[in-house]
Amino acid sequence: MRVSRDQAEKNRQTVIDVASQLFREHGFDGIGLKDLMKAAGLTQGAFYKQFASKDDLAAQASKRAFESAYRLRSAVAAANPQDPLAAVIALFLSMEHRATRMDGCPLVALGADAARQGPEVKASFEAGIKEYLENFGRLLGEVGGEEPSGKAMAILSTMVGAVLLSRAVNDERLAKRFLQAAAESVMGLSAGAVQTGQHQ
Amino acid sequence: MRVSRDQAEKNRQTVIDVASQLFREHGFDGIGLKDLMKAAGLTQGAFYKQFASKDDLAAQASKRAFESAYRLRSAVAAANPQDPLAAVIALFLSMEHRATRMDGCPLVALGADAARQGPEVKASFEAGIKEYLENFGRLLGEVGGEEPSGKAMAILSTMVGAVLLSRAVNDERLAKRFLQAAAESVMGLSAGAVQTGQHQ
DNA sequence: ATTATCTATAGATCTATAGATAATGC
DNA sequence: ATTATCTATAGATCTATAGATAATGC
Questions:
Q1: Model pTM?
Q2: Nearest CA of chain B to the CA of A127: how many Å?
Q3: Which of A2, A50, A107, B7 makes a 20 to 30 Å CA pair with B191?
Q4: Rounded (10°) angle between helices B84-92 and B54-79
Q5: Using one digit for the tens of pLDDT, what is the confidence trace for A76-104?
Q6: Cα separation of A173 and A56, whole Å?
Q7: What distance separates the 2 farthest-apart alpha carbons in chain A?
Q8: Chain A contacts of B167, Cβ < 8 Å?
């Protein structure tokens, strides 16, 4: 029954990965520990050797979700050196992003849930939001001031709101128009940004 | 024990009102029927004479939440005939709105939850979103075309995202800056709107 | 000897239903 | 006679814990 420490650590990472997806899909309250552990290939009994509580897992899974969102943005930016910001915006405001809650932005999927959670989860979200803002600031060609810029905050707000609203309506045409309207608005906001061809 | 039909109908309305607030506060999965009925001054047993299921109540409570949001927008617009749009925007992007989830915009509080709910709840949200867009279209001075305008969609997306993000961070200063950045961006988008002094 | 995972379970809570009760509505 | 609400409960599920098991790590 017992596995090696190496394997135990791998199992723990799998639980966090799986939880980061299933929480985004069902909400923090929409899935139980039994189903989470089963999806990770374990039983519920193993949970409390790995995590202090469901809240603890929620905080770690949130952090993980922001990490994979960051990795995806970086990869897309690197693949489009001529206009990395436009590429990141297009990815965020795509119908594919709307369709894949499980792998999408945690702010859209869990932002409202996070506002109701304990301090651990909220800390993960606050850090994730600041990372988004720094990231956008750099893509906008801003010098790395310590304060996030209003422009970055407006862009993030618009994109998060648009994907949220596009998911809340069944009408696919309306959903698409939300994403397009946000894209136009955000591209307008980012116009005038220095195009250095550099990113990260 | 039995009450008059009049009183029974009043009780039903109270349940819907209370649920529209408590769902916004705790999420659809964050509060049970027992607590909802208790908050309405009844016991859980009375629930199923009034509603078909929790989903049914969720759909009706969502509709009610959009109605009271609409009433509030109308009142604020009527009280500020010189610039009703600016007044509605200022209300939406206020720290008071951020603080009162229970009485605030259902899109911010429950938009992500709604995307995971059944068709009844989603229908309430779709109708509520279309109402917001028509409302903003009129305030922008647009003639009432059948299609919501991209401008109205961008404004709604930005405001919903900004309040959502402002609630997800603990840092009050950052929260305020999100709202301010969104206000500036949205006022820029709405510039050029016809100022007729008429509303509704 | 230690420990990662398992099965089993405690105790609380969830949605939904059943039957009793007491007031309304005819 | 009808029925709105109550108490009580069924059956499922939730988080968390306890103790058994079997493999690792020393």
A1: 0.93
A2: 9
A3: A107
A4: 130
A5: 999 999 999 999 999 999 999 999 999 99
A6: 39
A7: 61
A8: 111-112, 115
